[in-house]
Amino acid sequence: MATRTIFGARARVPPSPLNPIPDRRNPNGKPLSLPTRRSNGVDRVSLVACAVRFRPCIDIHKGKVKQIVGSTLRDTVVDGTALVTNFESDKSPAEFANLYKEDGLTGGHVIMLGADDASRVAALEALHAYPGGMQLGGGINSDNAMTYIKEGASHVIVTSYVFSNGQMNLERLKHLVGMIGKQRLVLDLSCRKKNGKYAIVTDRWQKFSDVILEEQTLEFLATYADEFLVHGVDVEGKRLGIDEELVTLLGCYSPIPVTYAGGVSTMEELDRIKTAGKGHVDVTVGSSLDIFGGNLQYEDVVAWHNNQQLMVTQ
């Protein structure tokens, strides 16, 4: 097998399709028109055969690419919780974005884990390196959403602006959709278990909202967003395995593209996500990747991704 250099290290080049990896969109960039079906009197989008995709990530903290256990992130230390950093890279966000661009990986996300100027500058570097190739999240609101889209973000990812003080602010959501369009919005529905159900969490995943992640919630929010991003917060960044129950829920009930993140540490778990999510849930891998200091080979994950695309086209 041939090799190439990734950040100065030799790596195997995985087999890949002859053609570029297609996005789940028409050439004009608009979402595919999907048929609907009626369920309980509500129009639901019928899930169509799409390949499961690997969605890459660039997490930025104080201007540096890092992998952090998200549940330990705080604006201030008030409860003695120490920030747990799994990895800090000496490579720039633009270098990671160029790597993903080279491998034809679309729909990944750049997340600013802080509102500092250094993180904003670093995030813009990534967007400029791969315009239209990545989504951007972290502190997004109606004042800055369009600016980031103009700077090259394919979508903006929103959580706390819409889910604040434990509740969903529908007026803010409608206002944001009116400004940038549904086709540019990803709702981050990251959640934690509470009383046996998955509750959406906000404010660096420290506050439970009163919004439960279930079929009705996903159907309703899908009318305002192009995609969902869902971190399994209880397992995120800990390399302890995936939240299979959450993946199953997303695969059963999300009527729009959805990406799961949290706990992936082996290639076998990628296949488990594919199975549990009924082939409809994409996946993000962070701390476990070798490019972020883990043991899971980035090239193997890209090869897995490429094989998923080939299975659909054959």
UniProtKB/TrEMBL annotation:
GO cellular component: chloroplast
UniProt keyword annotations, A-Z: Amino-acid biosynthesis, Chloroplast, Histidine biosynthesis, Isomerase, Plastid, Sodium
Main subcellular location of this protein, as a coarse class: plastid
Subcellular compartments: Plastid, Chloroplast
UniProt-listed Pfam families: His_biosynth (PF00977)
Enzyme class: isomerase
SUPFAM superfamilies: Ribulose-phoshate binding barrel (SSF51366)
EC number of the protein: 5.3.1.16
Annotated region (Disordered), positions in chain: 1-38
Catalysis: reaction(s): 1-(5-phospho-beta-D-ribosyl)-5-[(5-phospho-beta-D-ribosylamino)methylideneamino]imidazole-4-carboxamide = 5-[(5-phospho-1-deoxy-D-ribulos-1-ylimino)methylamino]-1-(5-phospho-beta-D-ribosyl)imidazole-4-carboxamide
Known pathway: Amino-acid biosynthesis; L-histidine biosynthesis; L-histidine from 5-phospho-alpha-D-ribose 1-diphosphate: step 4/9
Any coiled-coil regions, as ranges: none
GO molecular function: 1-(5-phosphoribosyl)-5-[(5-phosphoribosylamino)methylideneamino]imidazole-4-carboxamide isomerase activity
Biological process (GO), any one: L-tryptophan biosynthetic process
Cofactor (UniProt): Na(+)
Family: Belongs to the HisA/HisF family.
NCBIfam families in the cross-refs: hisA_euk
Protein name: 1-(5-phosphoribosyl)-5-[(5-phosphoribosylamino)methylideneamino] imidazole-4-carboxamide isomerase HISN3, chloroplastic
Organism, scientific name: Ananas comosus
